[in-house]
User: Fold FAD-binding dehydrogenase from Enteroscipio rubneri.
Amino acid sequence: MGVVGTACASNGGEAPDKDANAATGVDGVDYTNVYEGGANLMPARKAVCPGPRGPVAFEARDIPDSEIQREEDFDVVVVGAGVGGLMAGLKAADLGASVLILEKMTKGRGCFECFGAVGAGCQEGTEIDKAALLDEIYRSAYYRTRPEPARTYVDRSGEATDFWQSVLDKGANGFVISKVEQAPSSCGFPAMTPLIDTELGFYDSPALPPDAGVRSGLSGIYVCLEMQDVAKNAYDTVDLRFSTPAVRLVSDDSGAVTGVVARDESGYFRANASKGVIMATGGYDCNPEMMQAWTRPEDYANSSWWNPGWGTTGDGHMMGLAVGAQMDPVPHPVMNFRWGTPDSFADFRTWNAVYFGILVNGRGNRFVREDAPFQVVSNAQNAQPGYGKNCWYIFDETMYEGMEDALEEFKQKGWLYEGASADELAQAAGIDADGLSATLERYGSFFEAGRDEDFDRDLAVTLPFTGSRLFAFTTNSNVLATTGGLCIDEHCSVLDVNDEPIRGLYACGNASGSFFSGNYPRHIPGTSIGRAITFGYVAAESAVNAVVGVGPKLDGNAPALTPYVEGSAVDEAGKASFENLGPWNPYDPIHGGSADYAPEQLGGISEACDNCHTYASGADTVLDGMSSLGK
Assistant:
């Protein structure tokens, strides 16, 4: 299929046999076996992805010159008109570059309503400990990412935000970036770590409709529309085109990316980029087969979707892999939230019921601290049997303020059940009655004791069950975005499989990787949109100024590892010699030094045990205070 990428965790050697259950997309690309060089596949049970299927733009075939209708020349080509791509295009234009922004969808993309930054003008007076923030980002990824991209976000997000405000000031609607106030130790939702006070938003903007503050993503969509308007009307050097997908990257003989092949109503054309191409295509949450190949099945198998554009189909990932780019190892992290309903992201009429109620599985058992960050609760639910199927919010009539008028609607949809007792409610909803009764009784006892002994929920900000009517509301997780992508360095240059920057190719937003691992850390405010804005800004600066980082230095003086070799089997004579060692049984966990071992026992490496057992001549082989087998 012409894709030549390999995973960061490639094992080399012969290519694996093709998987009979491979996830093959509508474009014919086998996403399961996308890597060359025998890269390991992700071991996981198969599950069908129920998510939306957007239009895939990437074409695996090489587009012959005979099909190219024309060529156009630009300094910078940006692929994708989401918030990161628009930022990249506007920054490049601000630096004097001629810019083409290509968007395959008809109206562009949206973004969520808030984002994170450090040191922006609107954050004056807010103290943010950069070292603590960096440490939290690294720890949330279990240090499985390189530090440079996160540091770029922390160090450059403030100036990127200030530039964003200057762009919005050119618009006609008065968008204002302002600080989002949060509870001192909750990051917006109760969490185990102190507040990282980085969150910014647009809630003070007069152009937003009155309900934008409670409709997640609405304000972000309006902001993107404003950025589109600025790109089209405030900059003569920006060419923004919709319904025009990029399908392939173009490289020269040195491997440098020099442009893209794109398609419009007249056919294929080549857009040359003298300074570079910036990949801003987003994730791939609208590509079901790619989701099946690159993410954990529990992250999608029983989920709803929140996506306003359906354009996120992994085009940038595939275009990068086709020119030798490196991608984050699978499984990729997914941004997923709790609170999903069978047909939507959430129904906000259930806000109080969800906030005050408890969450149980089909056995009627609680399985998570309900007031934990959304991502935490979602992950816990997805870990339940059936990938979170048959999970319910349980609450009573003292907790459901705001949904009184929706009770009959939810009941008719089959989402809500009511009972006068735990047994009656369980029978109606299909929950184990004994389990639910025991859970409610135990949960009630926590209020008497003053401590949630199962999950340490903060009982001071919730309610006990005191009503006479019990309710069970169905719930599932929902997918917002994938957050694994093409590996980048601190300049947002895309790296090849040898960790060398690919000249002329940059990435931002969810098309870029090297930032999250395993999980999207919801307790750190705004790293998703924050990195999209920051990396779009930095990628444009790097492209226009021809900034290219250096590759790894691997030719130092570190010695080569000692190879382990296959040792000979222990024969009868060897066993007899071991018995002569006395009470020090070599097959027990406590044993003597390597001087007492035969080479056969050590697998042919007589120095093996000396790596961790080095004793002075004649010294005891146990520490002071330990007992010997012979005493």
Notes: Residues 298 and 488 are 27 Å apart (CA to CA). The two ends are 68 Å apart (CA to CA). The first strand starts at residue 6 and ends at 7. The chain is about 25% helix and 15% strand.
